[in-house]
Amino acid sequence: MITQRMRDFFETRRPEGPCLVVDLDVVRANYLGFEKALPQARIFYAVKANPAPEVLRLLASLGSCFDTASVAEIEMALEAGATPNRISYGNTIKKERDIARAHALGVSLYAVDCVEEVEKIARAAPGARVFCRVLTDGEGAEWPLSRKFGCVPEMAVDVLRHARTLGLESYGVSFHVGSQQTDLNAWDRALSDAANVFKTLANEGILLKMVNMGGGFPTRYLNDVPTAQAYGMAIFDALSRHFGNRIPETIIEPGRGMVGNAGVIRTEVVLISRKADNDNVRWVYLDIGKFNGLAETMDEAIRYPIVTPHDGDAVGPCVLAGPTCDSADVMYEKTPYPLPVALNVGDELFILGTGAYTATYASVAFNGFEPLRSYII
């Protein structure tokens, strides 16, 4: 959505070139929505989605915790006002010296998915709490996650058992059901696996305390998505089904669902052309592409809503491409994007739902095009 505050900004500031504008009022409303929908879960905002200092400061002031993927993100969260006990080092792939630095900063909660990572943490952060990430299938997600992170539940048992022998606190289990997850049952399948890990280790006297249910909460693009309240009800039902009246401490890690709909990118049409005289598909080139903000159009996984000055007029199929000289810089070609026939060079377009994973994915001056400018209002 384009809020009135955004409209006022675009009309009065008129920044040069493509830019992202994020409305903090929307972020605040999203946070309060998650808090209401899942009151029993602690919110750990996924910093990677949008690490703008203004966003982090707002969320810290609201009481949010933070899921971080690097020492730099940990330092950002601390600078924003979070205390170390509100920070999780959620990346399962960490240099030992980075673990030591996080430990020195006071962070005590770490993700793992193999015994090798456990051994690094035991050396660099003795006594820390660890949670093991379990693989999920990602079915139902628009941006499924690969097998890069996590292990099968049977291995998670071994990993947490090994952590205990090395003096770490085997604290819990985590999973991620895939980004932009629209299947309300996805958490049920993952929580079943988590509960089995809990039960197996409990029989050995290792009592886990926490389930990190990850992110995956969607923002609206072209299609409607379930409400935060619907996710909350489905997740609570699944927790009750698999853990009975002994529901553990729970964590959620919204990123896209927290900031996605809070951002809008303004872009300009640079060129409209065809590849043959009889071609009925136009090529529309924008001044932004995959390398300066729209990386999630890879494989056309995320299809953003686009607002044009000619909305309501007749439309025709378009291939949407970016401005760089890389042939991979094409956003939508497999499924052409319907845009108004009256579209002209120089028209300003607004790409909605772009508050997450745009400014952070933007490259550093590829082809001389500067990284995406970001304004937080």
TrEMBL record:
> What domain of life does the UniProt record list for this protein's source?
Bacteria
Residues forming the catalytic site:
325
Presence of the UniProt keyword Lyase in the record = yes
Q: Per UniProt, what is one GO molecular function of this protein?
A: ornithine decarboxylase activity
Check the record and name the PROSITE patterns matching this protein. ODR_DC_2_1, ODR_DC_2_2
Q: Which Pfam families match?
A: Orn_Arg_deC_N
Example of a GO cellular component annotation carried by this entry: cytoplasm
- What's the EC number here? 4.1.1.17
Instruction: Say yes or no: keyword Lyase present.
Output: yes
Where is each Orn/DAP/Arg decarboxylase 2 N-terminal domain found? Answer: 27-259
Q: Which reaction equations make up its catalytic activity?
A: L-ornithine + H(+) = putrescine + CO2
Q: Which UniProt keywords apply?
A: Lyase, Pyridoxal phosphate
Which GO annotations describe the biological process of this protein?
Answer: putrescine biosynthetic process from arginine, via ornithine
Q: Which InterPro entries match?
A: Ala_racemase/Decarboxylase_C, De-COase2_CS, De-COase2_N, De-COase2_pyr-phos_BS, Orn/DAP/Arg_de-COase, Orn_de-COase, PLP-binding_barrel
Per the entry, which co-factors are needed? Answer: pyridoxal 5'-phosphate
Family per similarity comment: Belongs to the Orn/Lys/Arg decarboxylase class-II family.
Q: What is this protein called?
A: ornithine decarboxylase
Q: Which organism is it from?
A: Candidatus Tokpelaia hoelldobleri
